[in-house]
Amino acid sequence: MVLLKSELVLKNGDKAPDFELSGIDDRKHSLSDFKDYKGMLVVFMCNHCPYVQAKTKALVEIYEKFKGKVAMIGINSNDPTNYPDDSFENMKKFAKERGIRFLYLVDETQEVAKRYGAVCTPDPFLFDNERRLVFHGRIDNAMKPEDAATEKTMILNIEKTLQGKKIEKDFEPSIGCSIKWKSQQT
């Protein structure tokens, strides 16, 4: 397991890169599907990472709290050839076992992760109603899987976004396993 911090590639105010990806619902999804939401949370994640597994309850809580207002999208960019736990079929099993009801998409080419600048799992990106980046970073302040959160960073930032308030600290790195690239990233 290679542990990484998220990196700053997309900057505050940058538009969300478009995508067209298949979901575990066996449908294709693109950025335009979410135009009617007041915000959008894109989380690069996978099935096998202990950091993602530790954040699953928090992700489900975020989805339940803001469903209908904020589109929530999980994207798995890991190479399933070398990490079969992250295969499309296992994504479906993982979502069912963990109670994930938000969209969970597969980035087979890994191009979407590269355009967003995602490097680890989980690596969350919060966008406003115009799909401009307002926050990139952690879900909460529990930085290790065994830690207990005392601050729900993402929930607080989503609430500020929905209220039209500025997020003072727009980048607080997430920590997690590296995305498992098919080949060396250029």
Topology:
Blueprint (H helix, E strand, L loop, with lengths): L2 E3 L14 E4 L4 E3 L8 E6 L5 H17 L3 E7 L11 H11 L4 E4 L4 H6 L3 E2 L1 E5 L5 E5 L15 H10 L8 E2 L2 E4 L8
Parallel strand pairs: 4-5, 5-6, 9-10
Antiparallel strand pairs: 1-11, 2-3, 2-6, 4-8, 7-11, 8-9
What does this protein look like?
With 186 residues, this protein is α/β, with parallel strands linked by helices. It has one domain: Glutaredoxin (3-Layer(aba) Sandwich), CATH 3.40.30. Helix content is 24%, strand content 24%. It has four helices and eleven strands. The strands form two sheets. The protein has an eight-stranded mixed beta sheet with strand order 3-2-6-5-4-8-9-10, covered by helices on one side. Helix 1 links the parallel strand 4 and strand 5. The radius of gyration is 15 Å and the shape is globular. The mean pLDDT is 94.
Biggest sheet architecture: 8 strands, mixed
* Shape assignment: globular
Oligomer: single chain
Low-pLDDT stretches: none
- Radius of gyration equals 15 Å
The fourth-level CATH homologous superfamily is Glutaredoxin
Secondary structure tally: strands: 11
What percent of residues are in strands?
Answer: 15-25%
Which CATH architecture would you pick? 3-Layer(aba) Sandwich
Number of continuous helical runs: 4
Order of helices and strands: EEEEHEHEHEEEHEE
Q: Report the helical percentage.
A: 10-25%
Termini, distance in Å? 21 Å
Residue-averaged pLDDT: 94
The number of distinct structural domains comes to: 1
The CATH class label is Alpha Beta
Q: Which topology does CATH recognise? A: Glutaredoxin
- Structural class label: alpha/beta
Tell me the strand order in the biggest sheet: 3-2-6-5-4-8-9-10
